[in-house]
Design a protein that fits this description.
single chain; alpha+beta
Length: about 325
């Protein structure tokens, strides 16, 4: 259920301090079935790509649904494995959002995703109601828990997929490593989830773009609706304009309601949320998309640690925007 940003990154700026050359370095790679990009102010033009790859590879072996050898995959196969601290953190955040959304955010809805064909992005289809009813019997995060270091299930058919918030947490892990190693100015992006600290190469606040939710747009072919200045914050977006299919003229989104088994049916096209960390922001953005415009806005507006920017379609099919009071942005629609 993924979501992308245009990163408005500036060119490298070089200076000299304390006898060492200081510069901004950009690096990128692949993990979790997507791409990552990191820009950081280096101490001596050092390249940290191997360290970033190591962190993300270790995370993949814990939480990735794409890795056949990951701890998550083995647990979904009902093999006996202890959960690690990363798993516990993402699970706890998922429980929080599950309760906050009255069950609409639910990592156990993986079988529903598979039934619609969104897991492999092929063979997309509308499942029979009887099929959905059968699956819903073993969907619900209240049917699974962590006891000590073990995952317990009420039904062995229960499987988990943390694609809705795991990438956000991987962003947080990369930021934590950079902070722990003395880096103060950097921007981290994994699969479109972004978190920034300090200043960019022009000694200005990091600027990140929000895509216009045009159906079928891609990373290479996109428009930008707004830009956001991020200072020690994360920006996460969820939308249904890239991952969907159409049957008999009706659009079916990959954002599924875990209570009904059906995709969301609402005018909300995308939501971007600013939060202190990307784990919360990633999951919250997905939660709001499933909840819809009115309920989603009320939820974000009620959270002191979050601000939101909503793009929706009016009755004429035109894009409209709505934001919470503290969400500040630069309007690029007329530029």
């Amino acid at each position: 259920m993924k979501k992308y940003f245009a990163l408005l990154l500036t060119a490298a700026l070089f200076c000299t301090s304390c006898g060492k050359t200081s510069s901004y370095v950009k690096t990128s790679g692949f993990a979790q079935g997507t791409t990552w990009h990191i820009t950081y102010k280096s101490f001596d033009n050092e390249i940290l790509t191997p360290q970033f790859d190591s962190i993300l590879n270790a995370f993949d072996f814990s939480m990735s649904a794409y890795n056949k050898e990951s701890r998550l995959t083995k647990l979904n196969q009902n093999l006996t494995f202890e959960v690690d601290e990363n798993f516990k953190a993402v699970f706890a955040s998922s429980e929080y959002l599950y309760k906050l959304s009255d069950g609409l955010f639910d990592p156990t809805c993986r079988p529903l995703v598979n039934a619609w064909g969104f897991n492999k992005h092929k063979d997309l289809r509308k499942p029979l109601q009887s099929e959905l009813d059968s699956i819903l019997e073993f969907v619900g995060m209240d049917k699974v828990r962590i006891s000590g270091n073990r995952l317990e299930k009420d039904d062995e058919r229960i499987t988990l997929n943390f694609n809705a918030n795991a990438q956000g947490y991987s962003v947080d892990l990369l930021c934590l490593w950079l902070k722990d190693h003395g880096y103060e100015n950097f921007l981290v992006e994994v699969g479109g989830e972004v978190r920034a600290f300090g200043k960019n190469s022009e000694n200005q606040t990091w600027k990140v773009g929000i895509d216009t939710p045009i159906d079928g747009s891609t990373e290479e072919n996109r428009d930008i609706t707004a830009a956001v200045l991020l200072e020690n914050q994360s920006l996460c977006t969820s939308g249904d304009y890239r991952n969907f299919f159409v049957i008999d003229g009706k659009k079916y989104s990959h954002e599924l309601n875990a209570k009904t088994g059906y995709p969301k049916d609402d005018s909300l096209l995308s939501v971007s949320v600013i939060t202190p960390d990307a784990l919360l922001g990633d999951g919250l953005a997905t939660t709001v998309m499933v909840m819809g415009l009115e309920k989603g806005f009320r939820l974000v507006d009620s959270l002191p640690e979050a601000e939101g920017f909503f793009i929706y379609s009016d009755k004429n099919g035109s894009f409209q925007t709505l934001k919470t009071k503290g969400f500040n942005y630069i309007d690029l629609t007329n530029n």
